[in-house]
Each structure stands twice: as structure tokens, then as C-alpha cells.
Automatic annotation (TrEMBL):
Domain of life: Eukaryota
Chain intervals for the UniProt region annotation (Disordered): 556-584
Descriptive protein name: NELFB factor
Gene: Nelfb
GO biological process terms held by the UniProt record: negative regulation of transcription elongation by RNA polymerase II
GO CC annotation terms, alphabetical: NELF complex
Originating species: Grus americana (Whooping crane)
Pfam families in alphabetical order: COBRA1
């Protein structure tokens, strides 16, 4: 018998059941092999008197005994599996588990026998506490560990953080990669962007579903995952880990896993915020609720602020808070009210500030809400409101009959204080960037060009972060026609994008994404100089090179061939170029 055969009979000897080795030995040492085989069959066959006379019938039909025994075996195994599942649900708790434990004790020695393994695994799956010794044996054997149900693995994981970490780690990597792929996607659209999917849709994602299943109702495993997420967030500053923290909790909430939801102090806060993210707006009723949670943090429980700040640092939460802030500011302009007089606005700022301070709070382990700078409320926000007023005034002026003095130009300068705020104050910078996204979405070219210079230097380079650039490129598609104007392109590309391309690979990628989408709108001379400026260097990554090649291919298709260049083309058809010495 080879190693495969040995595995087939693994553990039978310990139970006093004859196996292939025994038959081999019997046949080697006997004088009448046929008699020996018959005796072996009688001793080890199915011991039913009525069967003895029926078996010759099968022989007459040419059915091998193996086939018969195999089908009986399969049938019995199915019945046994059903019975095990039934025992797990019937009678008193102690009694049912006692039965299963006895069964496990009897059958465990056969766990490596492929035909019996499913039964042993099924027994373990239904035991809330598999004996420690058995778990250790499963853990030590790669194949057994792989074969056992997630219910058994949870029991192994909860006392082996490193092993659980090995299982979770590839999922977390996959999650981050999926987020980055969306941010760098070649589809640029103002309608479908990073923030379009609803929270419920996002929670159906593969990674969240797998983690939810791995955790089950096990609080210990849930805490471990949260610890991994905190550690990775600290190590990388990657805010997508904060999104996963919220998504995981809400996925368990969807399944009504009260064992975990009731012990996570962030549950109700996250649930309420989740509803706001779904609406992309914080309404007054929910604002009161959220404020209640923040005000309700008791002395001695300040550590919960670390968790709440991580929930608020989720880009989907920041996006909702920032959009709500911009909407409030516009309302205040209409009501002639100052920011400091609006409690709703102050609450939004408080939550933004808590979210933006998450990394520092978890890093320093000092759990208190960050102080809000008074100037943010008394100077910066009124300044943004004055920009809104400038737009209103300009629009009204345009409609008035023009007199001798000619049309009033759009204000082109920006207060120095605005630029300073964007450089030095994180919250001001975040709100300022969202205001710029807002005017771009409104196709307000004047306001966009006026404020754009302030983006070259911002607090920790926020204007060159992937999320902002992803949203900006999407919104810029609405200003597509402006790309034919030299002045607009110079301000946008030379004045903003190209200032960072060489030092920031991600900016290089976003500009190429934008051009792939809008190249046909850009003036040809400008396009040529941009093509030169954006050429990848030796240090450039694969993604940049790939995008640049795609762009070059598209531009090649647009070039007229030398013969046509002299005539005026009657139709603007993209013709593939024939490489000639002239066009090389």
C-alpha cells in the first residue's frame, strides 16, 4: 500500500478495525488465499443475516462488492451527518454536547481518513468548545486546519492572534487595493465617483463579507480585527482602514449580531452617522442625536473618543460632513447669519475636527476632543461666505444694463489670509477644498480660476491627495469646453498640476487620467507641450508609464497624416497614422 492507501485507512487500527495492511498480512501468511479472503469478508462485512443471501444476487448482476459497500457507506455517512446536526439542536444543552463530545472522542482517530473526515469535522463544527487537545492537533496539521469549518477555526484563532493575523492580512491588503483602484479608475465621471455607492452596497463587498463570516459572534475576534485596523492606520495613515472599521460594525449590525453590537460603544453613533452618509447630508434631527453621543462621553470613558474619531475619519464620513458644511454656509448667506450663530454648523466642525484628529489621538493616546480654533469660525468661514456673495454680486451685475463704465470684472485676487488658512489649518483646508469642488461642479470657471492658486501649497499637501484629485478630475469634466482656452489650461496644468507631478507620482497619474478623458478638448499646441511635460522618467512607476502609453496611442490616432495636413480636412475622423519618416 502506497502513502495514499495508508491515508485511506488512517486510524482504523486504533479502533480495532481491520484495514488493508491486515488483509495483506493475512494473505502473505496463509496457505489457502480464497478461504482467507472469504473469512475476511465475513468478519468485516455488513453483519446483517438477511444480507448474506442477497449478496449473490448482486454478484449475478456483475455489481462489484466495492461498489455495494461504497454505496452503503455513503448512505450511512449521510444519515450520520444528519443525525449529528440533529443532536446539536435537541435536548438539554449539557446532554447534547456530552453526546457530541463522546462521538468526537470515538471518531477523532479517523480524522485523516478522507471518507470519514466530513463526519469528524461536522461533530467539531457543532461543538461550541472543542477540547483543547483536539484543536492543537488540528492546528498542527495544515490539511486538517484547511478542512475544518470556520466555527472550529474561530476557536483556534481566538487564542492564536498571529495565526488569525495571517488569515486576515491578505484580506486587508485586498481591501486597500480595491479602494485605490476606484480612485485611479480610468472612468472619470461626475455622476459615478468614489462616494457614489451607498453604505449598504459597500458592505456587500467581498472583504467585509469574509471578515464578518470569520468573526461570527465572537467578540474576541472582532476586537482583534479592530486592533489590526488601528495598528495599520497608525503605521500607514491610510484612512481606508477607518472606512473598514465602520463597514465591519455596520455589517454585523445588518445581521443583528447583538453579541458584538451591544458591546461596541460606537454602535449607535456609527448607525446614526451611516444614515447621514446614505443621504450625503446631516439633517437637524440626526445632528442632535450625534451631538448627544459626543456630549454623553463620561469621565473615565474618554478612550471611546479614539474609536469615534476613527469612525469620523472615514472618508465617507468626512465627505458627508464637508458637503453639509458647504450647504450650511450657503444657507447662512441667504439668512444674513454669521457662522458662530449656527449651532448646527458648529457641530459639523466639531465632528470634522474629531475625525481629522484621529491619527494624532490614537498615536498620542490622549483622549480629548481637539480644540477648535476661534479664527476658523470668526475669520475663515465668513471669508468663504464672502466668496459666495462675490458670485451673487457678479451675476446680478451681469444682468444690469451696462452703462458707460463698461462691465465690472470678476474679482481676481484672493485674500492672503485664505491661502494662509489652507496652509496652516487642517479643517479650513478640508472645507476650502470642498468649496472648490462645489464651484467646479457648478461650472463656475471664474471662481475656480480665482481660488486655484491657493491650492499649490496646502496643509500636508491635501490638495494633492488622491480623494480630492479623484473628485476634482470628475468635476472638471463639466468644464470640458474651457480646455480649448490657453489661459485656462495654463492656470490648471502649469499653475497647479505640474507643480507637483515630478515629486508626487499620484498627481502624475491623475493628470494623465484627466487628459485621457479630455485630450480631444485641449488646444493642440498646449497638448503637445503637456505631452512633453508628462513624459515618464526612469523613476516613474508602471502605472504612470501605462497611462502615458495609452495617452500617446490616443494622440497618435488623432494626428492627421502629412498629406492631409496640407488640405483642410472635411471631416474630423480619427485616422490611424502610417508611420513615415516625417511623422516620426
Amino acid at each position: 500500500a502506497g502513502p495514499g492507501q495508508a491515508a485511506m485507512y488512517a486510524g482504523l487500527q486504533e479502533l480495532g478495525v481491520a484495514n488493508g495492511e491486515d488483509l495483506k498480512e493475512t494473505l502473505t501468511n496463509c496457505t489457502e488465499p480464497l478461504k482467507a479472503i472469504e473469512q475476511f469478508q465475513t468478519e468485516n462485512g455488513v453483519l446483517l443475516p438477511s444480507l448474506q443471501s442477497a449478496l449473490p444476487f448482486l454478484d449475478l448482476h456483475g455489481t462489484p462488492r466495492l461498489e455495494f459497500h461504497q454505496s452503503v457507506f455513503d448512505e450511512l455517512r449521510e444519515k450520520l451527518l444528519e443525525r449529528v446536526s440533529a443532536i446539536a439542536l435537541e435536548g438539554k444543552v449539557e446532554e447534547r454536547y456530552k453526546k457530541l463530545e463522546d462521538l468526537l472522542e470515538k471518531s477523532f482517530s479517523l480524522v485523516k481518513m478522507p471518507s470519514i473526515q466530513p463526519v469528524v469535522m461536522c461533530v467539531m463544527k457543532h461543538l461550541p468548545k472543542v477540547p483543547e487537545k483536539k484543536l492543537k492537533l488540528v492546528m498542527a496539521d495544515k490539511d486538517l486546519y484547511k478542512a475544518c469549518a470556520v466555527e472550529v477555526k474561530r476557536q483556534i484563532w481566538q487564542d492564536n492572534q498571529a495565526l488569525f493575523g495571517d488569515e486576515v492580512s491578505p484580506l486587508l491588503k485586498q481591501y486597500i487595493l480595491e479602494k485605490e483602484n476606484i480612485l485611479f479608475s480610468n472612468d472619470i465621471s461626475v455622476l459615478h465617483n468614489f462616494f457614489s455607492p451607498s453604505p449598504k452596497t459597500r458592505r456587500q463587498g467581498e472583504v467585509v463579507q469574509k471578515l464578518t463570516q470569520m468573526i461570527g459572534k465572537n467578540v474576541k475576534l472582532y476586537d482583534m480585527v479592530l486592533q489590526f485596523l488601528r495598528t495599520l492606520f497608525l503605521r500607514t495613515r491610510n484612512v481606508h482602514y477607518c472606512t473598514l472599521r465602520a463597514e465591519l460594525l455596520m455589517s454585523l449590525h445588518d445581521l443583528e449580531i447583538s453579541e458584538i453590537c451591544t458591546v461596541d460603544p460606537c454602535h449607535k453613533f456609527t448607525w446614526c452617522l451611516d444614515a447621514c452618509i446614505r443621504e450625503k447630508f446631516v439633517d437637524n434631527k440626526r445632528a442632535r442625536e450625534l451631538q448627544g453621543f459626543l456630549d454623553g462621553v463620561k469621565k473615565g470613558q474618554e478612550q471611546v473618543l479614539g474609536d469615534l474619531s476613527m469612525i469620523l475619519c472615514d472618508p465617507f464620513a468626512i465627505n458627508t460632513l464637508a458637503l453639509s458644511t458647504i450647504r450650511h454656509l450657503q444657507d447662512l448667506v441667504g439668512q444674513d447669519t454669521l457662522p458662530r450663530e449656527s449651532p448646527d454648523l458648529l457641530l459639523l466642525l466639531r465632528m470634522l475636527s474629531l475625525g481629522q484628529g484621529a491619527w494624532d489621538m490614537i498615536d498620542s493616546q490622549v483622549f480629548k476632543e481637539p480644540k477648535m480654533e476661534a479664527e476658523l469660525i470668526t475669520k475663515f468661514l465668513p471669508m468663504l461666505m464672502s466668496f459666495v456673495v462675490d458670485d451673487h454680486t457678479f451675476n446680478v451685475d451681469q444682468k444690469l444694463p451696462s452703462e458707460e463704465k463698461g462691465p465690472i470684472p470678476y474679482p481676481s485676487t484672493i485674500p492672503e489670509a485664505f491661502t494662509k488658512f489652507l496652509q496652516e489649518n487642517r479643517i479650513a483646508c478640508e472645507i476650502g477644498l470642498y468649496y472648490i469642488l462645489h464651484i467646479t461642479k457648478q461650472r463656475n470657471k471664474n471662481a475656480f480660476l480665482r481660488l486655484l492658486p491657493a491650492l499649490v501649497e496646502t496643509f500636508s499637501d491635501l490638495a494633492f491627495s488622491d480623494i480630492f484629485l479623484h473628485l476634482l478630475t470628475g468635476n472638471l469634466t463639466l468644464l470640458g469646453d474651457e480646455f480649448s482656452l490657453e489661459e485656462f489650461c495654463t492656470s490648471l496644468f502649469d499653475g497647479f498640476f505640474l507643480t507637483a507631478c515630478s515629486r508626487k507620482e499620484n498627481v502624475h497619474r491623475h493628470v494623465l487620467r484627466l487628459l485621457l478623458h479630455l485630450h480631444h478638448k485641449v488646444a493642440p499646441t498646449k497638448l503637445e507641450s503637456l505631452q512633453k511635460a508628462l513624459e515618464p522618467t526612469k523613476q516613474s512607476g508602471e502605472a504612470v508609464k501605462e497611462l502615458y502609453n495609452q495617452l500617446t496611442e490616443k494622440l497618435e490616432l488623432r494626428k492627421p497624416s502629412p498629406a492631409e495636413a496640407t488640405e483642410t480636412p472635411s471631416m474630423e475622423l480619427p485616422l490611424p497614422t502610417v508611420p513615415t519618416p516625417a511623422s516620426r
